[in-house]
Specification:
The chain is an alpha/beta fold and about 325 residues long. The chain has 13 helices and 12 strands. Helices cover about 45% and strands about 15% of the residues.
């Protein structure tokens, strides 16, 4: 199993801080590191990642995720191609239809039909191809290294879209084997629609992570932070919710307040043990290894994990020292 990190991206002097985190992640054997993109709330990720690229040699560097609401697909493709050139082919362009940063500025997420068209345009550019516009044909006139496009998707339509059009998928369905298996099946359906093999599409199961000798303490640390992830997922579909958990999930969704700061959007009493297990790998090193082994048995070959901000460095070190070796990483 391959291990990647999702790093916080915000605050003063963030370029230097993230550069140091990325250098350390490469030293510890992680496969990649991905930055969020939140309009006016985080530094521009491609510039930060370019700084990281010149300080590293092996690590994959990408967005998780940016969107097409504020930038034309050709502009995003150019940014990704430039990062790929700077990093000698290590860039990954992670895309979503748009979430909090979009809604906060009164915009709407990109509709799936237009989003798929944009993804295809971006992939054409990142393969050094020719674009057909309403006026003429446009060729890319600079070096373009192969750059994979990953999509962040949760609902069945979005996952099938990813199967048709993407190089990889960030699985927002969480880190619970049944939900991941359901998502992989939807991706396979989309791949079949396009005459592709699911093996062509890389997948990273995504969730929070916290490792402590006291497992209950670890689960408490991630409890509030995962509420936003859960809400975003269940907006797309409730198909993956077991019947015995449905009532508590509906209460959680009904009380969620998108307008509040990230960790205050849900009543902690409504964040159940099911939600913690669904969207986090949290506990003692042994407990975390067991959880990841379950994911491996479900067909997961890679994960992108988000350490809680207040224990970020501690968690990155613990994951590399106490968990990853069990998977040959």
């Amino acid at each position: 199993m391959q291990f990647s990190l999702h790093s916080p991206n915000g605050g003063l002097k963030e370029a230097a801080r993230i550069r140091d985190r990325v250098v350390r992640a490469e030293q510890l054997g992680y496969e990649g590191i991905y930055l969020g993109c939140s309009q006016l709330s985080t530094p521009e990720p491609f510039q930060i990642l370019a700084v990281c690229a010149v300080a590293t040699n092996r690590l994959k560097l990408g967005t998780a995720v940016t969107n097409m609401v504020y930038q034309d697909p050709t502009v995003l493709a150019g940014s990704a191609a430039t990062l790929s050139d700077i990093s000698d082919g290590r860039a990954v362009l992670g895309l979503g239809t748009g979430d909090g940063p979009v809604y906060a500025m009164g915009r709407r997420a990109t509709r799936l039909k237009e989003f798929e068209e944009g993804v295809r345009t971006i992939r054409d550019v990142l393969r050094g191809g020719e674009l057909v516009t309403p006026n003429n044909r446009v060729s890319v006139n600079y070096r373009v290294l192969p750059t994979p496009v990953y999509l962040s998707m949760e609902g069945p339509k979005g996952l099938r879209l990813a199967g048709r059009a993407a190089d990889g998928v960030f699985l927002g369905s969480g880190v619970e084997p049944r939900a991941v298996s359901w998502a992989l099946a939807r991706i396979a359906e989309g791949a079949a629609e396009a005459g592709r093999s699911p093996d062509e599409i890389a997948t990273l199961a995504c969730g929070m992570v916290c490792i402590k000798e006291d497992g209950d303490e670890a689960r408490q640390i991630v409890r509030r932070r995962l509420a936003n992830r859960a809400h975003h997922n269940f907006q797309s579909t409730l198909e993956t919710v077991p019947e015995e958990e449905m009532e508590s999930i509906r209460k959680f969704m009904g009380a969620f307040d998108q307008s509040k700061p990230m960790e205050d959007r849900s009543d902690p009493a409504l964040i159940t043990d099911y939600l913690v297990r669904r969207f986090a790998i949290a506990g003692t090193p042994k407990e975390c290894i067991t959880r990841l082994e379950e994911l491996a048995d479900a067909g997961v070959k890679g994960v992108m994990l988000t350490p809680a901000r207040r224990v970020y460095e501690e968690t990155v070190e613990a994951l590399a020292e106490k968990v990853m070796p069990a998977f040959g990483a």
